[in-house]
């Protein structure tokens, strides 16, 4: 139960790299997908909050639709953002490097450079077209989630050497956890 007395949505399984769905480009949400999306989004938020994380793409829960959820929890307050069929419309010329992690690569982190600001277009949960100008952590998070929808992981922005080191370390940790 949630604090307001409603039933908490069932959690979803987060895929761990190198699962093939994480490298698959998601298809746009069409009119026939809206019932599925409306049922999926609350479960994605519940899964993301429980993990805990600040963003989750549908591909990470093995749903190959262009849906992502984000919540940076400013001042420890929920500020959920649902992005359906998101697309980056504009990026700043300035770039920022920040440490990124990913729920599909648990305990793995690396510095990733991305445009400092983005303007993104998307549909909200009511199917209305929205635009958002994002900067800082929100811009990085949105770009990270859109990358997921395109089959790109944050490690794909790294050198082959760094990427291979992270993937080997992840494989080792997952093997140890399974043997646990």
Please provide a brief summary of the model.
This protein is of the alpha+beta class.
How far is the first residue's CA from the last residue's CA?
Answer: 31 Å
Give the CATH superfamily. Peptide deformylase
CATH architecture label name: Alpha-Beta Complex
Percent range for β-strand residues = 25-35%
Number of helices: 3
Looking at the structure, what is the overall shape? globular
By CATH reckoning, the class would read: Alpha Beta
Tally of individual domains: 1
SSE-based structural type:
alpha+beta
The CATH topology corresponds to: Peptide Deformylase
Oligomeric description of these chains? single chain
Unreliable stretches, pLDDT < 50, 5 or more residues? Answer: none
* Total DSSP E strands: 7
* Helix content bin: 25-40%
String of helices and strands: HEEEEEEEHH
Radius of gyration: 16 Å
- Average pLDDT value? 95
| Lateral arrangement of strands in the main beta sheet | 1-2-3-6-7
Structure, described:
With 180 residues, this protein is α+β, with helices and mostly antiparallel strands. The protein has one domain (20-179): Peptide deformylase (Peptide Deformylase). The chain has three helices and seven strands; from the N terminus they run H-E-E-E-E-E-E-E-H-H. The chain has helices at 34-50, 136-149, 160-179, and strands at residues 55-57, 67-70, 81-91, 95-102, 105-115, 117-123, 129-135. The longest helix has 20 residues, at 160-179. It is globular. It starts with 33 loop residues before the first helix and ends with a helix. The mean pLDDT is 95.
